[in-house]
Amino acid sequence: MFATYLIGLREGLEATLVVSILVAFLVKSQRRDRLPQVWAGVGLAVALSVLFGWLIEYTSTSLLARSEDRELFEAITSVAAVVFVTWMIFWMRKAARTIAGELRGKLTEALAVGSLAVAGMACLAVIREGLETALIFYSAAQGAAGDSGPLLALIGGIVTAVVLGVLLYASALKINLSKFFTWTGALLILVAAGILKYGVHDFQEAGVLPGLGNLAFDITNVLDPTTWYAALLAGMFNVTPAPTVLETIAWIGYAVPVLLLFLRPTRRTPASGAATTGPAAPSTPAPAAASGPGVEASERTSPSTTTVTERGADTGAEAEAEAASAPQRA
After folding, report:
1. Alpha-carbon torsion 209, 213, 214, 219, what sign?
2. Would you say 122 and 31 are in contact if contact means Cβ atoms under 8 Å apart?
3. How far apart are alpha carbons 186 and 327 in whole angstroms?
4. Phi and psi angles of residue 215, each rounded to the nearest 5 degrees, phi first
5. Which residues, in sequence order, are bridge partners of residue 244?
6. Most CB atoms within 10 A, among 102, 107, 172, 264?
7. Which residues, other chains included, contact 115 with Cβ-Cβ below 8 Å and sequence gap of 6+?
8. 257 phi and psi, to 5 degrees?
C-alpha cells in the first residue's frame, strides 16, 4: 500500500503545485473572476481521470473473457505505466524550473480568448497528472483484487498532497522540495522496476515470453512470503522470493541504470542559456511591465533556494522552480 500512497502523494503534489501557480497568477493579476473557470477545468480533469481508471479496470475485468487476454492487457498497461513513470520523473527534473513561466504564459493567452479557454487550459494542465495516476495505480495495484487497501492508500496520498499544497500556498509550511522530489523520484523508480517485473511475468503467463518455470533463484526459506516484511517488499517493489530469470533481468536492467541516471550530478547551465519558452517568463531582471500582467520578478528563484518561505501567492510557482533547481544535491 505504501507504493500506491507514494504514487498519490507524488502525482497529487505535482498537480496541486500546477493549480497553485494558476490561482496565484489570477489573484495577483486581479482576475479572481476567472477562478471558477480554473476550478471547473480542474474538476473536469479529475472526472476524466477517474473515468479513465474505471475504463481500464472495466476492460480488464469485463471486456476480456480469456485469462490470457487479461494477462496480456495487464502486461501492456504495466509497460505503459513504467514509461509514464520514467518520463514523468525526468521531465519534472528538467522542466520544473520553467513550468511556472510557461503556465502563466498559457493562462495569459487563455484569458484573452475567454472563459472556455481558461477552463480548458486548467484541465489540460492537470489531466496529465490524473491520467498518469490512474494508469500507474492500476499497474501497481494488480494482484490486489477485492482489497480496498491500495485505493485507500492512493486517496490518502492525494489528500496529503492537497494539504501540503494548500499549506505551501499559504506559506504556512517550509519543505525542501528538491529533496522531496529526489527521494520520491528514487522510490518511484524502484516501484516502476517492480511494475515492469510484474509486466514481464504477465507476458510469460500470456505465452508471449518464455521461461515461466525457469526461476532465477528461490529463497522462500529465507524470505517467507507469509511474513509481513516479505509482503511489504512485494507490495512496494514487487520483490519476490522466487522470480523467473526474465523477471530478475527486467527488474535489475531497469532499476540500476535509471537510478544511476537520475541520481547523477547535473551540470549547471549559464543563466543566459536557461531562457524559457513561456511568454510570461522573463530571462532578465526586467520590470513587471515587460512580462505581462501579474508576472513579477519573483519568477526568478535563486538556484540555491530549496525551501518555500514567503510570498504566499508565489509559493506554487517558487515550489515548481525549486523542484528542479538542484534536484541531485539531496
Report:
1. positive
2. no
3. 11
4. -80, 140
5. 215
6. 107
7. 34, 37
8. -65, -35
Specify the pTM.
0.68
The arithmetic mean of pLDDT across residues 134-163, rounded, is 79
| CA–CA dist 282, 274 (Å, integer) | 10
Q: What residues form DSSP beta bridges with 169? A: none
Nearest to 15 by CA among 46, 40, 37, 36: 46
Contact 21, 316 (CB under 8 A): yes
Nearest-5° angle of CA 176, CA 233, CA 148?
85
Task: Give the cell for residue 144.
Answer: 490486489
> Among 236, 203, 240, 250, which Cα is nearest to 7's?
236
Write the CB contacts of 246 (distance below 8 Å, at least 6 apart in sequence).
200, 204, 209, 210, 211, 214
| Closest C-alpha to 108, from 13, 42, 28, 16 | 28
Q: What is the pLDDT of residues 28-76, one digit of tens each?
A: 888 888 899 999 999 999 999 999 989 988 888 888 878 888 889 989 9
